[in-house]
Specification:
Blueprint lengths: L7 H24 L23 H20 L5 H19 L10 H21 L12 H24 L4 H24 L4 H4 L8
Length: 209
Amino acid sequence: MNVRDVPWWGTVLSAVSPVLLAAGWTVAASLQARPYDPVADSVSALAGIGATDRWVMTLAFAVAGACEIVTGLALRPARTAGRLVLMAGGAAGIMVAASPVHMGDGAPVSHILWATAGLAALAVWPAAAARRGPAVPWTLRPGVSGGAAVILLVLLAWFAMELITSGGQAGLAERVLGEAQAGWPFVVVMSCRHPLPVTARYQPLHGYQ
């Protein structure tokens, strides 16, 4: 298998997810009839029952989740375990869109469970996707993949602490986390498509030059 074997449609859809999320919460926030603070208020509130034009953020959640599923299918150079975890995170994102919060009544249990599962999966999938070998793309090498997972888990912990402590920056933390989780698959895909060094493509047999 060519370690750069990522189809073009996987590259395109891996780029769609972070752009779509950012566009979704920006447009949805501008449409709200009631006061909305993007630093303090959750992104889920934009898709909640009672929000103005809630379909905008709902659609963004659903399509971004679908893009992550397709990216997992396309990311053939990654380990199967990591691809499956990435796809599971995308599927959970679709279920988050299907389990909206209720404005003024908080989030239903289903929303909390799917959001937790999805955010956790999208934080740990890089570690599960790591491979070894001289021709493995740099983003899939254990050190880089592990480091990416640690950063994503730290951002997830920040978001969780903002929710628990009502620190006033839950919206900011969620947006930073969301863009990091949506953007890393695109970085991995691009590293897979980058030409390999000559030394990685050609390894002379022992005893021959």
